[in-house]
Known about the structure:
Largest sheet: none
Number of helices: 2
Shape: elongated
Order of helices and strands: HH
Amino acid sequence: MAKNTKLKVLFVAALATTASPAFADAGAVVDVSDALTIIAGITVAVAAIGAAKLAPAATAVAFKWAKGALFS
């Protein structure tokens, strides 16, 4: 059983090393301009959502500190 497993591992390793150059194309350029345009368009919305989530957390921490300062 162990010999069969070692043979499978060797086969997969050999296949991985020989198959990868077939998929590599040094001249290929990926066009990411559409993705960057979309990301740039949603940055304001993402920042607003982040601020809306951060504000209650900061308020809760401020109340906790004030409570700790007043009642300690």
